[in-house]
Design brief:
The complex is a heterodimer of chains A (160) and B (101). Chain A folds into 2 domains: 1-70 and 78-103, Four Helix Bundle (Hemerythrin (Met), subunit A); 116-160. Chain A is 74% helix and 0% strand. The model of chain A has no long low-confidence stretch (mean pLDDT 84). Chain A contains 7 helices and no strands. Chain B is built from 3 helices and no strands. Chain B has helices at residues 2-23, 27-50, 58-88. Chain B is 76% helix and 0% strand. Chain B is elongated and about 55 Å long. Chain B has 101 residues and is mainly alpha-helical. In chain B, helix 1 (2-23) runs antiparallel to helix 2 (27-50) and helix 2 packs antiparallel against helix 3 (58-88). The chains are: A mainly alpha (160), B mainly alpha (101).
């Protein structure tokens, strides 16, 4: 059922005409993904998925849609002319990866093992301490960049 | 469901995201499709981690870091898209054709 939510939500995102409906379908897809993480025993990843994707990124995208598409009653055609080319590329990707996944022996009968939170936290602050710190720098740079991009031009810049 | 079931779902989601990125005309929707593809990769990483045996946490840590990078990417990407839409007055990517002339 969760798999249906993920794949159906994804399909709805790319096929729905109204972009607001696409964003809602995206939230369904991300919520089902959080459920799959719970099934896999990765509760911390599920929590992060709900917080970051369902909470932050969905709201960010909904805000961007509302800022840019206000009162857009006449919806344009959703697809490019190259839609058939895109479908062929996507189907080829799915076919290739799917063939590899299905034809490989992953060791049948193996059980999913839950992530132990103690070990994850220890690894995050010992083995992965440097990537963790670099990540904080990246987030800082992203915040500054977003503020710079989103601000309105100054008066003297507008004059030139 | 087993490992291959999760991997098939992940593959389908990645393909859907790739199709949407190539085929849709709306720039915000293209960003949403990038998020779909990143989520597909995340699902495969967490699934591999869960079936790799007890005591393995690397896949989960990778997934968490991808989420943080995706958040940064979405912030900057949406900032760029809003700036472009503000100057060009349209969200359709095939209208951005100044460099063609």
């Amino acid at each position: 059922m969760l798999a249906t939510g993920v794949v159906g939500g994804g399909l709805a995102v790319v096929t729905l005409r109204n972009i607001i409906h696409s964003a809602i379908a995206m939230m369904v897809c991300f919520g089902s993904l959080a459920g799959m993480y719970l099934l896999l025993g990765a509760g911390i990843v599920a929590a992060a998925q709900v917080l970051i994707y369902l909470g932050a990124i969905s709201v960010l995208i909904l805000f961007a849609i509302m800022l840019t598409q206000a009162g857009d009653a006449n919806l344009p055609a959703p697809f490019h002319r190259q839609v058939w080319f895109a479908a062929v590329v996507a189907l080829a990707t799915i076919g290739l990866i799917g063939w590899v996944v299905i034809s490989t022996d992953w060791g049948a009968g193996a059980e999913a093992v839950a992530v132990v939170l103690d070990e994850l936290a220890t690894a995050l602050f010992t083995d992965f301490a440097l990537p963790f710190e670099i990540l904080s720098l990246l987030l800082l740079a992203a915040i500054i960049g977003a503020i710079y991009l989103a601000r309105r031009p100054e008066e003297d810049e507008r004059a030139n | 469901m087993g490992l291959s079931g999760y991997l098939v779902v992940s593959t389908l989601l990645f393909g859907i995201g790739a199709f949407g990125f190539l085929a849709r005309r709306n720039s915000i929707l293209m960003l949403i499709c990038i998020e779909l593809m990143l989520n597909a990769v995340n699902l495969s990483l967490v699934a591999f981690n869960a079936y790799a045996g007890p005591g393995e946490v690397t896949g989960a840590i990778f997934a968490l870091m991808i989420m943080a990078v995706a958040a940064a990417e979405a912030t900057v990407g949406l900032g760029l898209v809003i700036a472009i839409i503000r100057t060009r007055q349209t969200a359709e990517v095939d209208e951005y054709s100044e460099l063609k002339e």
